[in-house]
Design a protein that fits this description.
Rossmann fold; 10 helices; alpha/beta; 26% strand; disordered N terminus; 14 strands; 351 residues; 4-stranded antiparallel beta sheet; binds iron/sulfur cluster
């Protein structure tokens, strides 16, 4: 009997027209040994992930450190070269572009880095930092660039008078605003926001998140918002993807993911988010052990070594595909939606 043709899994897309499509993206870092630099192993930082981002939406990408989320953002902009896969931005295959075309493409795709202290050159004035992308991409006279820098500083809530100052004269929140102004200089359509508020005080985080939301509304921007803080991601995202060991475990609309998660890993992450209400009692799910190394990830489902509902042999033998279980709600689990056993839960007051 002929084998049944394998169905291609449905791609998790947003509601609107896709601006960015990522298919089966992989990034393996070789581990080399010996004088000849022989490759003895591969660190699978990103291992075959697929998703789409619609114009004007924010896709939140969450996960613990080492889950591969930052690597995804850098691969999309080709700040590091992916090992395999496809990245399509507005019908252009990003991975087929030569360096000149890729530089032109980066007009439309920009990044805001996590650390506002390390990402701004301390020897450059704010005006030079913000105008640098304009010089690289050309097309404006010196006076037009100067006007554009003033506009950009105003747009991110800073005075144009700051252009002559240096980064060390600013607070963390102000520096991140400068980073956002630099990212907006070329009028991009898409921004990778790589943990943009993680290094900031809690009081300043909200200001920067609100600024990003205002800019999105005003300029029609599309965001990939990378973070480990689930509360911040919930605040800003349209949809949320949860990563673990280089794979997407679950991807859904924000409300569906936070109110009715299907994957045991998402349930565990959400159970650890503090609730600012002392009268609310919450069940916290404690995961066994640490996140395994991506140098030698577990077989089958990469989460099986910590999963409270793993069943054997299937969970250690078969990789669960990312499947649509409800409209727009994808999960990679052989037993998605199954309740977690009470024995693995610890009653906590608050969180
Ligand atoms: Fe747990 Fe198995 Fe689902 Fe993986 S596939 S999350 S190990 S139940």
């Amino acid at each position: 009997m002929a084998a049944e043709p394998q169905q291609t899994p449905k791609l998790p897309l947003g509601r609107g027209e896709p601006l960015l499509i990522v298919r089966d993206l992989k990034k393996y870092f070789p581990v080399k040994r010996g004088v000849l630099g022989r490759v003895v192993a591969q660190v699978k930082a990103v291992d075959g992930i697929s998703f789409g981002v619609s114009g004007g939406e924010t896709l939140g990408l969450v996960g613990e450190s080492g889950s591969g989320k930052t690597t995804v953002g850098r691969c999309i902009l080709r700040l590091i070269e992916p090992t395999d896969g496809e990245i399509v931005f507005e019908d252009t295959n990003v991975l087929s572009l030569d360096s000149g075309d890729m530089r032109r493409m980066r007009r439309n795709m920009q990044i805001v880095f996590q650390d506002p202290y390390a990402s701004l050159n301390p020897r450059m004035t704010v005006g030079t930092i913000v105008s640098e992308p304009l010089i690289i991409h050309g097309g404006l006279s010196a006076s037009e660039r100067s006007d554009r820098v003033s506009q950009l500083l105003l747009k991110v809530g800073l005075s144009p008078d700051y252009r002559k100052r240096y980064p060390h004269e600013f607070s963390g929140g102000q520096r991140q605003r400068i980073g956002v102004a630099r990212a907006l200089a070329t009028n991009p359509k898409f921004l990778v926001l790589d943990e943009p508020v993680s290094a900031l005080d809690v009081s300043v985080q909200a200001q920067v998140v609100n600024l990003l939301q205002d800019l999105q509304d005003e300029l029609g921007l599309t965001y990939l918002f990378i973070a480990h803080d689930l509360s911040v991601v919930e605040h800003i995202s349209t949809r949320v993807a949860v990563m673990y060991l280089g794979k997407i475990m679950e991807l859904a609309d924000r409300a569906a993911l936070y109110e009715d998660p299907l994957h045991p890993y998402t349930k565990a992450l959400l159970s650890a988010v503090p609730i600012p209400n002392p009268t609310v009692r919450k069940t916290r799910i404690l995961l066994k052990g640490d996140i395994p190394t991506p140098l030698n990830p577990p077989s089958g489902c990469v989460f099986h070594t910590r999963c409270p509902i793993a069943q054997f042999p299937i969970c250690a033998a078969e990789v669960p595909p990312l499947v649509e279980h409800k409209p727009g709600h994808f999960a990679a689990c052989h037993f998605a939606g199954a309740p977690l056993p009470a024995a693995d839960a610890e009653r906590l007051k608050g969180a």
